[in-house]
Queue: 2 jobs
Job 1
Amino acid sequence: MFTGYLTLNDGIRLFYKVYGSTTQSEKKIDSDQPTLIFLHGGPGVVDHTLYTPFWSKFANKELGEATLQ
């Protein structure tokens, strides 16, 4: 897992967290792997960690590193 910020043209910075990347040491996304983007409500709605146990089940599923139950 690694984190970062994406800066948009108007200066807004979006925080992101990547789970299950096969190139974690390089801190970049493996474009050959399927990508799932989860966007939750804005500030004050709920912290994203509430959803982590569910969505992290999909990390590296094709590499055999995660299983769905």
Job 2
Amino acid sequence: HLDLVSLQDFVALLILVLYGGGVKQRILSFDEVISQDELTTLSNKFNAIYVGTMSSEIAASEPKLSPAEKIVAQTVVDIMEVENRQEYGRLYTEGLRLLLNQPEFHQSPRIITILELLETESWLASVLGQRVSMEKAEVIIGEENREEALQDFSLVIGQYGVSGKASGIIGVLGPKRMDYSRAISSVNSVSTLLSESVAEYI
């Protein structure tokens, strides 16, 4: 839910209530004078059109919006993307021993750096960057990875869950010579199953 409150002729307060009850506030500056009536009309439009949508869907609609609406939309997208990256912070890993036994990494001098990185919960948000809404599996190969320690690897990632309610990321990390078609198929299949399971409990 979104509210806009006029503070000055060119300035308004945006109040965004997120799923789960979180409340975010931002000060917006507009290029033209905008009245409270105009702000109310704008917020009503956003609440009617964008309820339950993902940040990527809002961003995709921006070319069709007025200048004032674009400012509001971009602010909402920025807030949602930050929240999504924070939600991805709880990280679970399996099969690390199998990965490290691969010949590329078994005697690698970077092995300690890699292990230390994978033990943190922040690396995934860094790797994902702006990828917070994915309709299908995506592949990040080698130097496409933002984390230098992981540039000898490839990562296949996909999103699961229910838009605007509960979601997560699942992925496969492996050597750059991995079987990509198999990894993509596995990620898509598991994310579909997880999405179905999530939908049953919300």
